[in-house]
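User: Hey, my collaborator sent me this sequence without any context and asked if I could get a structure. I don't really work with proteins. Can you help?
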Amino acid sequence: MNYNWQAALLFLAAVVAVTVIGKQLVFLNADLRRMRDHNREQDRLKLARAKYPPVVKQSRLVGLVANLVFIAGVLPLCVTLEAEPWWRLALDAVLILMVYDFFYYLTHRFLFHGQGYFRQVHALHHQARSPTHIDAFYVHPLETAVGLLLFMGTVPLLAVLSGPFHVAALIASYLVFVQINTINHTHVELPKFPFRTLSWITAKHHVHHESMHKGNYATITLLYDKLFGTLD
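Assistant: No problem. I've predicted the 3D structure and written it out in structure-token form, which is a compact way to encode the shape of the chain:
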């Protein structure tokens, strides 16, 4: 494998740019701004509790370190700038996300909702019965590390099997991975088109947070919950 630092640098620049510009564009919509303001207010109340800030800080620190290691040490070995057709880029992005989500489903269901130490680790996150934005980061640092490792390990695993991915496919899959894992925890109440799907996605994850005995273990799509009979 070649160490393609140029593609890794492009990946980082594109992720930052799309995230910053995307937020500006998304919140031009009045309904989405209203939901953002509601989440911010609930987050403010939660962060006023002594237990929230240290966990959020540790989780974000683990995320920062993991992302730096991935971008500097792993991604350059799995990425290419050679031109590929648009359909291959889309297919690769979907492949990465679906393989990751399968691994996440198994880990979430049988490790974090199993018995023993990891169930106790995950119980911290489940203290949030009505999640809002900040609860995406109210996660034990060990669980944060495991979740990121599943995605960041999926990329080199598939690259070994199928060859390096175009940087555009990795940018797309990474952005979807980050945004869905965050949006899942937000409070969204927008039952009308075009936001009904967004409300449904968040509602399903909120059902999961009602107790440690609920299903909906996947995070990108609920396909695996549907296949394995754990859809609530």
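In plain terms: The mean pLDDT is 96. You can pass these tokens on to your collaborator as they are.
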